[in-house]
TrEMBL record:
It is an enzyme of class 7 (translocase). It comes from Simiduia aestuariiviva. Its EC number is 7.1.1.1. Residues 13-95 form the NAD(P) transhydrogenase alpha subunit C-terminal domain. It is a multi-pass membrane protein. It catalyses: NAD(+) + NADPH + H(+)(in) = NADH + NADP(+) + H(+)(out). One of its GO terms (cellular component) is plasma membrane. The chain crosses the membrane at residues 6-27, 39-58, 64-86. This is proton-translocating NAD(P)(+) transhydrogenase.
Length: 102
């Protein structure tokens, strides 16, 4: 087996393992912990966004620049969507103002 094929098999195995472990972990999280975990994952996605910006701005091959730009787009959607969902979930716990004057 050539080194390139070995590397491809190795990276595919890591991707499949990450997908499986991620799914198993998320499926077992109780509903009360989703908001704090989402806030933490938004911070991690922010770090991903910085790395994507560095990758897109580096003077590498054109394919790397396009992949970096796609990563910036996807990470931005993930961060913004995560914060919107977190804000909406936290709004459910706020007390509603009553109509009467006190």
């Amino acid at each position: 087996m050539t080194p390139e094929i070995q590397q491809l098999v190795y990276l595919t195995f890591i991707l499949m393992l990450a997908i499986f472990v991620g799914f198993e972990l998320i499926a077992k999280v109780p509903a009360t912990l989703h908001t704090p975990l989402m806030s933490g994952s938004n911070a991690i996605s922010g770090i991903t966004l910085v790395g994507a910006l560095v990758s897109a701005g580096a003077e590498h091959a054109q394919l790397a620049t396009w992949l970096g730009a796609a990563a910036v787009t996807l990470a931005t959607i993930n961060v913004v969507g995560g914060y919107l969902v977190t804000d909406r979930m936290l709004a459910m716990f706020k007390k509603k103002a009553t109509g009467g004057a006190k």
